[in-house]
Design brief:
Number of domains: 2
Low-confidence stretches: 1-5
Radius of gyration: 19 Å
Shape: elongated
Largest sheet: none
Mean pLDDT: 83
CATH architecture of the largest domain: Orthogonal Bundle
CATH topology of the largest domain: 434 Repressor (Amino-terminal Domain)
CATH class of the largest domain: Mainly Alpha
Strand content: under 5%
Distance between the termini: 47 Å
Number of helices: 6
Structural class: mainly alpha
Length: 115
């Protein structure tokens, strides 16, 4: 938030910029909220108050700078047995990848095979 004497920086994402970007890329407020890990009502409140908090500015700039904004990233939690996770970790280390990189690659390969 800004005090009466402070002004946002030139890279500040205001509701006008965000609204225009969402419209241009056919992205809903619900989708941007999901990508940021927040409730849709929070995004609605930004537009109602005409103010986006500083603590989400970097994340918004990152999402808005993507080459393919229609493919917003989100975080998910997947339940699995410890033995499965341990095997994934072993394979990832063997291939010089992080667990996340290994899973993303494996899923990508599976999707390509089924396409």
């Amino acid at each position: 938030m800004f005090t009466s004497n402070s002004q946002p920086g030139p890279d500040y994402v205001d509701t006008k910029k965000l609204g225009q970007w969402l419209h241009e890329h056919s992205i809903s407020r619900a989708e941007i909220a999901k990508a940021l890990g927040i409730q849709t009502t929070v995004v609605h409140n930004w537009f109602a108050r005409q103010r986006i908090p500083r603590n989400v500015q970097a994340s918004l700039r990152h999402l808005m700078g993507k080459d393919s904004p229609s493919e917003l990233e989100s975080q998910i939690a997947v339940r699995m047995k410890n033995s499965t996770l341990n095997e994934i970790a072993r394979q990832a280390v063997k291939e010089g990848l992080s667990v996340e990189e290994w899973i993303l690659r494996a899923v990508g390969e599976k999707l390509e095979k089924n396409a």
